[in-house]
Amino acid sequence: MKTLEKHRYDVVVIGAGGAGLRAAVEAREAGLRVAIVCKSLFGKAHTVMAEGGAAASMGNVNDKDNWQVHFRDTMRGGKFLNNYRMAELHAKESPDRIWELEVWGALFDRTKEGKISQRNFGGHEYPRLAHVGDRTGLELIRTMQQRIVALQQIDAKENGDAESHIKVFAELTITEILKEGNKIAGAYGYWRENGNEVLFEAPAVIIATGGVGKTFKITSNSWEGTGDGHALALKSGANLIDMEFLQFHPTGMVWPPSVRGILVTESVRGEGGILTNSLGERFMFKYIPSVFKEMYADNEEEADRWYLDQDNNRRPPELLPRDEVARAINSEVKAGRGTQHGGVFLDVSKRLPAEVIKKRLPSMWHQFFELAGVDITKEAMEVGPTCHYVMGGVEVEPDTAAAVGVPGLFAAGEVAGGMHGSNRLGGNSLSDLLVFGRRAGMGAAAYVKNNSGSSVSDSAIAAAAARIEAPFTKTGGENAYSLHAELQEVTHNLVGIIRTGKEVEEAIEKIATIRARSANVAVVGDRKFNPGFHLAFDLDNMLLVAESTAKSALLREESRGGHTRDDFPGMNSKWRQVNHVSNFDGNKVNVKAQPLVTLSKELFELFDVHELEKYMTQEEIVKGGSN
Question: Is 351 a catalytic residue?
Answer without folding.
Answer: no
